[in-house]
Amino acid sequence: MTLFRSRISKAVVPAAGLGTRFLPATKATPKEMLPVVDKPAIQYVVEEAVAAGLPDVLMVTGRNKRPLEDHFDRNYELEEQLARKGDESKLARVQESSDLAAIHYVRQGDPRGLGHAVLCAEPHVGDQPFAVLLGDDLIDPRDPLLTRMIEVQERLGGSVIALIEVDPSQIHLYGCAAVRATEEDGVVRVTDLVEKPGPGEAPSNYAVIGRYVLDPGVFGEIKQTQPGRGGEIQLTDALRMLAQRTDQGGPVHGVLFTGRRYDTGDRGDYLRAIVRLACEREDLGPDFRSWLRTFVAEEMT
Q: For the Nucleotidyl transferase domain, which residue ranges apply (predicted)?
């Protein structure tokens, strides 16, 4: 078997969306900056990229996203004030975000879909494989999905997407993959992709979630991709073309994920994610779980 030396070191985080599902909270605050317990959602995503060995992160932003840059920048006034007070714990937490990674920014300008957002990263990424992490999906660090995907891409080449099995009634909310088994447990070959399939159109109940490791050949396919569902340039449509190839950017494999995933793109799931993560925190969990049990018991009476 040929060993592909991809030397993946760069992650791309699309962050140009308007966050309309969270209005009015996102009228002046980027949805990526909404707190999940005590950190903005976007910080969890950057931490995941760094933990997978990707020290170079490009954020694809748009208008009104300046708070993202401020969060990952130094705040000298605040740091100086905390240092004077001797509050080392809070000082470390403030400095943590600015020390995480080498973070770069590019503006998408015209928001023309995820495919177009990924295309904006081409000058920064160059001709090497790269990861794409969507901020609506938070993956628990105890389940190193991205590390596994990178390992698969380095062995098999092409592109790798993350797949979860969902109830057939929910598949219309996702990109959907047609797959066939490989000799490796938990890894499938993707043969076709459909973005948010209509009734009777889904080839399976394997849904694409927001983690990708992409061959740079995807850029050429995106450039030839016409606007699809929603009038946007869909990354799914470009990957569909790569899935049919064995060279020039193909093939496409899927890693089946059964670990802990927190969906912050929906208001209800966002609240559930906060509760789950708060319950598991050593500093917050014991008291919070005790209160939660009492609250639930009172609600049930």
A: 10-274
